[in-house]
Amino acid sequence: MILYSFFNSSTSYRVRIALALKGLAHELRTVDIRAGEQYAGPHRTLSPVGGVPVLVTDEGEVITQSLAILDYLDRIAPQVPLYPADPVQRAHVLELALLISCDIHPLNNLRALKYLADPLAVGPEARSAWYAHWIAEGLGAAEVLLQRRGSSTYCFGDSPGAADCCLVPQVANALRMGCDLTPYPRVQQIHATCLSHPAFQAAAPERQPDHRP
Q1: 87-199: which CATH topology?
Q2: Which CDD domains does this chain map to (predicted)?
């Protein structure tokens, strides 16, 4: 398999965690989204939206959305499950994963922030306020969902899964942007637990070959 990734892309980070959890061998190829390489001809052919991650399977199939990639990985390597078998428990995992992937990330990703800056001419202070607002909205909801589920080691149960793959990169983004996480003790607890896990450590942005300040 080939994974097209960028060290600071939270969606790529999700997939790197899942690959590490499952121990799946893959080739990593860097796409510098800060430099706009995601919009260049060769990569745009792979990703119609112009983004990362992109996974090319051993059979040459191209998958371009992080949660679709996680689902694919779970089907081909079910021995380390990212989703529970129980329908209700699986729905709860997806509930949190989709909250992060659909309600927080799209409003705060690089494309959205660049559009706020140009052409909308929103200044840095207002952009930071925008970012912090959607983090508070989203992580506030995530905290409620996690509190409802009790005090398990990870988001759902005693082993990490798809929800943790999504939560940790989103918290990393929030910390990088200086957001206050004190209102979310459960989120912080799970984040700290995940960071002690070898798979999360291997997938971390600072461990990637293209990492830079």
Answers
A1: Glutathione S-transferase Yfyf (Class Pi); Chain A, domain 2 (1.20.1050)
A2: GST_C_Zeta (cd03191), GST_N_Zeta (cd03042)
